[in-house]
Amino acid sequence: MCSRAAAPHHVIGEGKSLFTEAPLGSGAPGTFLSRCSGPCTSSSVFPPVRAVPGGRAAAALGSEIVVNEVNFVRKCIATDTSQYDLWGKLVCTNFKISFITDDPMPLQKFHYKNLLLGEHDVPLTCIEQIVTVNDAKRKQKVLGPNQKLKFNPTELIIYCKDFRIVRFRFDEAGPESAKKVCLAIAHYSQPTDLQLLFAFEYVGEIYHNPAKKVNGIDPGGGGSGISSASSQQTPLFETYSDWDREIKRTGASEWRVCSVNEGYMISTCLPEYFVVPSSLADQDLKLYSYSFIGRRMPLWSWNHPNGSALVRMANIKDVLQQRRIDQRICNAITRSHPLRSDVYKSDLDKCLPNIQEIQAAHNKLKQLCVNDPFDDTEEKWLSSLENTRWLEYIRAFLKHSAELVYMMECKHVSVVLQEEEGRDLSCLAASLIQVMLDPYFRTIVGFQSLIQKEWVMAGYQFLDRCNHLKRSDKESPLFLMFLDCVWQLLEQYPAAFEFSEVYLTILYDSARISLFGTFLFNCPHQRVKESTEFAISKNIQLGDEKGLRFPCVWDWSLQFTSRDRLLFHNPLYVGKSTPSVHNGAPRTFKRSKKNYSSTLRGVPPAIKNGIIGEQEFLPRRNSLILKLKPEFFHSAEGQSHSMEQYFRDWFAKPVDLHGVILPHLSGTQIKLWKLCYFRWVPEAQINHGGSITAFHRASLLADEVDMLNRSLRQYKSNSSLQGHCSELDQSRMYFRANGLNDTSGTPDFLSSSFPFSPVGNLCRRSILGTPLSKFLSGAKIWLSTETLANED
């Protein structure tokens, strides 16, 4: 274990500014902290920490250490001119890289503020690739961990996992200082061990010194932190009671919470508590577990009001016992159904793209969005987008999930999602099915509980799939694809979701911040094991706790003010608190099949533009229709007709916002998520345009409606004038009306990138004639050609 405490360093925290004052240009020595398997040693010297007057930095975190820094750095703002460039100091800490400047940001009138990150900060776990360039020697190198740099860099380009590209020039900086800060960034952004991620150092410091809590909040917990008035907590599904409440919420009376894996005695990649059929005894589960890959026994996910269950299951590796165990599990699921309906098994490995194909599509999408997306070949861009296959895979997941919704909703059968290990594709498919079927998961707290249940606790490998330790052979953006699929549904049914696309985008960004334990581990057992080992090495007394408690990403107050968190709310959302009216009487959602059909219009009846088209029901490879059990229908024609008729009937009716929603899958309906992928591209920014303009206007209208409702309530209750004014000041909207019939125009700072700003991030910069796609395709390809040839 690497012990940084043994080496002198600058600690950030205890209410102090991020940078302490020192004379400009002073050269007092410090120590560069090396990541290693044994005790750390000094490997280089860096200047002391200094503040730039007027520079803005995020609030300091306990145990945040300044590793290296360099003064007189120029951050490039535009590709064709240097007149807008910013001058300041480039700093590398063990949490992020920061650029501290007193220059105002040009061409920028708004920027939402993350309390953990400054305007120019990049978390180390968000860095994908680091490229150093020397103009004079015409050399460039992609820096890996513990590598040497044989030339003094004149330029540093950082490629981020969120499609950002930031570029710094060292023309006026000391050459040795520039080299050291580049090496420090490469070193700390590519750790070799999980316990070297910043979250461990932060939490360790909190346990030793509780006064250093980030923003005054303890680690752990599931608080939503959405608004000051919100007291609803996000269930983390770490306890027996969380699972029991979910069983009761969904009416799964024939299922029970199982504690056979308590202490992770059976499987290290399952949660301690999960739900199984009541007819399966613990002793049987222990016996059957040996036959499943990873000993991952079947996991209950959700129950339909009609009694159909959604279950996830890994493959059975014991060929000799496969038929017997499979039959036993299916019989137990059948007995848990009130109608004793049969079970339908969906083999996701055969029906959906694999994780390698999804990663390849993501790489192509990144190259397309970053490498000159808007140039003279614009007419080829859409075909290039199609060739990435990203939208094709989005459509595949939505389509297959909708077909399984049909099985549960219309055929009243339980669905088993089968996958080799049961912790990748099944996370995505199970989550989408529940979002389509259950309106609770379309609320903010419900959606967060869904991610906790189907991703975090079910053993989705965030550490490997997000590539926090830069092991690219295991990387795959399934979580991003899930958020993209949800965004497609949000785009098609905006009034059905409580959250906005800003919320989805920030949630994706939060997976790249190494402070939160939510998206840091491959499974709950890994958190307990690794944090316990870390606690022992740091002499931390855990008591009865199972491992260290890390900050939870659902505590949004850690990152944003209550004002900025209002951007998470969708102004078009029709919630239970505002029931629709039917025949003069208010109607609220009840979990029954009858209520899945009715009240609000909003979907065009044209079937060909929806999930159903004539070509969709021809026999096709991996079709759900070709996989249905014979007893479900009398013939293949009957199978096709039954599903077609269900979708045809569904799209012909008005949409019930608190019932089932199904995706439109035509070519024009599946879109590119521009806010997520284009927000850092200056050329793609539309001033006073984009979807934010509709969001702004809808917010004003919703705020006016709220004002009228509050006024009516105050009038009816004859409250005092003081109470009246107090309530009128309340608002759930980020954009607020200046009064009734507000006719104010669009604010000047609104653009299609709102609330993000592309200013200061480059997406069209080529280096010495080398296309960006070569950098983004990975260091191995690039190093095998130009870099190795140019090395001294």
UniProtKB/TrEMBL annotation:
PROSITE patterns: PPASE_MYOTUBULARIN. The keyword NAD does not apply. GO terms for cellular component: cytoplasm; membrane. One of its GO terms (biological process) is phosphatidylinositol dephosphorylation. Keywords: Phosphoprotein. The keyword Phosphoprotein applies. It comes from the Eukaryota. CDD domains: PTP-MTMR10. Residues 237-677 form the Myotubularin phosphatase domain. This is Myotubularin-related protein 10.
